[in-house]
Known about the structure:
42% of the residues lie in helices and 11% in strands. The protein contains eight helices and four strands; from the N terminus they run H-H-H-E-E-E-H-H-H-E-H-H. Strands 1-2-3-4 form a four-stranded antiparallel sheet, with helices on one face.
Amino acid sequence: MITKEALQFLSELIANNNTEWMHANKKRYESYKKDYHNFIASILAEMKPLDKSLEPLEVKNCTFRINRDIRFSKDKSPYKTNMGVWMSQDKNRKNAPGYYIHFESGNSFIAGGVWCPEATELKLIRKEIEFFHDDLEAIVSDKNFKKEFKELSREENNVLKKAPKDFDPNHPAIEFLKLKSFTASHRIDEKSFSEPDFSKKIAQKLIALKPMNDFLNRALQTEE
């Protein structure tokens, strides 16, 4: 679970997102970071027995810096006011399939899959779908997947209007082939993050994504 102290720190950071406040609260930040790392450790302890590919992961592989990259952003707030956990099935691959947990006031969720793969990776995934779309259909039709995540994310900016180049527009899996990212997500009540058994409960939800992640990982490990 996330401690009350960590939640209070994030809440105050929202109202005081500046370097002066952060420097004045350095000890509180160090305590927050320790709580953040303990939270990740508890998630990994639940996830590793369910997905053996996560075994090599350490806490440091799953963290995010609190500093925002503001170089190209109109919002110059220097710090993130959310807490994220990323567990990749292959820590050595830049954009490997994985599981994500996001805590943010008013916008907490869990998710997984592959987000915005590079062109070469995207082609590999589409090729896998082209030849083995029945496998993906079975995965997203599974009752556990549908219960927790319903379907692959289909936001407007994630779907091509036409069939991708070199793919048959009449292919039976064309709606999958038109996707640019292969993710699924589910909103989470932020109050649940404070429950003592949060890690166990959230692991049971996230593991519904494992078959999808395995399918994507298989695609990315296939030679063209």
